[in-house]
Specification:
Strand content: 15-25%
Oligomer: single chain
Order of helices and strands: HEEEHEE
Radius of gyration: 14 Å
Shape: globular
Bound molecules: 2'-deoxyguanosine-5'-monophosphate
Number of helices: 2
Helix content: 10-25%
Structural class: alpha+beta
Strand order of the largest sheet: 1-2-3-5-4
Mean pLDDT: 96
């Protein structure tokens, strides 16, 4: 499968890594929309939020645990936003489930 995030997860394409374990990888977004902007992805391929099922949802819970740890480590006291874009109208450009974590500026009202 020609999936850029699978290649990043496999170490075939470099990234600025923040965190990695057996299940997930967190890395800085190549096109940051805020002073802090990183992505957290499952290492196994899930196309989008629409493909989350009872069979693969454990990794999503793990992703949110990792986000809680990383945002605490980064000391994001003023808050942060977690976003996943799903499908064309949401602007999903990479068809591998990923959670954006954005912080370091006021994130409203320009984003929902
Ligand atoms: P989305 O529009 O929700 O599908 O966001 C995809 C994000 O992925 C976008 O903010 C840019 C980022 N991105 C795309 N390709 C790469 C890459 O090769 N490396 C990194 N670090 N980020 C990427």
């Amino acid at each position: 499968m020609d999936c850029i995030f699978c290649k990043i997860a496999a170490g075939e394409i470099p990234c600025k890594k923040l965190y990695e374990d057996e299940q997930v990888l967190a890395f800085h977004d190549i096109d940051p929309k805020a002073p802090v902007h990183f992505l957290v992805i499952p290492k196994t391929h899930i196309g989008s939020a629409s493909e989350i099922t009872s069979g693969n949802s454990a990794v999503v819970a793990h992703i949110f645990e990792v986000i809680a740890k990383l945002t605490a480590q980064l000391d994001l006291k003023n808050g942060y936003r977690v976003v996943t874009n799903c499908g064309k109208d949401a602007g999903q450009s990479v068809e591998h489930l990923h959670f954006h974590v954005l912080a370091g500026r006021l994130l409203y009202p320009d984003m929902a």
